[in-house]
Structures are given as C-alpha cells and as structure tokens.
Amino acid sequence: MPVWFQNQMQRAFFEKDHYQIKLLNQCWFFYRKKHCSS
User: I need a surface site. Which of 13, 28, 34, 37 has the fewest CB within 10 A?
Assistant: First the structure.
C-alpha cells in the first residue's frame, strides 16, 4: 500500500470520516484488483 494512501486512511479514521473511508476502500479494492489480476 502506498505511503500517501496510508496517510489518507489514517486521516480519514482520525476524523471519523466515514464517506472518505468508504471511498478509499473502494479505490484500494479496484487498484488491487487491476494490478494483481494481470
């Protein structure tokens, strides 16, 4: 997981920003799916 992504996640959790957490989770899921399947 990229460092910038970890920072975003930590900030979202710290601020209890549920929308941001959901968005980041979806982004990470799609990112992983795209890069790991090939």
Answer: 37
